[in-house]
Amino acid sequence: MPGRILHTSLALILTCVVVIKAVPLSSEVIPVRYREGLLHGFLVLSTIEGDVLAYGDLTQVATGDRVTLRLVFHFKDGSLHDEATIYSERGSFRLLKYHLIQKGPAFNRSMDFSLDGSTGKATARYSEDDGKEKNADEQLKVPPDVANGITITLLKNISPNSPQITLSYVAPTPKPRLIKLVITPQGEDSFSFAGSTRKATHFVLKVDIGGVAGVVAPLIGKQPSDTHIWILGGEAPAFVKSEGALYVGGPVWRIELASPVWPKTPQR
Length: 268
Hints:
This protein has helices at about 1-20, 150-155, 210-220, and strands at about 40-45, 50-65, 65-75, 80-90, 90-105, 110-115, 120-125, 135-140, 165-170, 175-195, 195-210, 225-230, 240-245, 250-255. By secondary structure, the protein is mostly beta strands. α1 packs antiparallel against α3. The termini are far apart.
């Protein structure tokens, strides 16, 4: 009897969702306030408890209005996260190409995902639980505000006093689909380095799946967790820290800036 009640309730929810006319979230194209340039940063990826999982390099090269960005994490267990992005910054930011590779025991499946921001073609090559590889191609209507690979760049150009902003995102899943990122500034948090105290704007990114799937996801435990990103403001905005999942359904990990550590040498 309880099982029948649960089944009936879920069916009723689905029926209501279909009947109710959904109001789509509006998206925004982010204008260029700060142009990007040459960059090479060191990153560390760890658990929320502070256990280091991987070290990373963030590199960026700008040629005219076109920027090539790459983020690579090498895990201690041999896993790899390799994210390459090409975007333009002519008036506003526009994604051109995006390529993501994830493989190794740190991830629930191997994934090779690519997206053409101009044509909307999304391709996913992934492994099933039995180890078999599969391919999936999707032709999507990609809006100009798609944020794959450039989310942090966009946040650096959003005013901390802005109201809630919504961006588009193509989820790199076995069946690529277009979702929404709802971004809400949460005020400033303090941090310090070398005895100096600074403040960074705290942004919360919430995934809006939309449609029937978006309503059912929280009921079956598949609603993606929120992502938290801290951006230093001022004349030269910069990334400080993030906390969120690196893949759909994954654990919450922390990414922070890392400083070089030199070996101790005898005093000259």
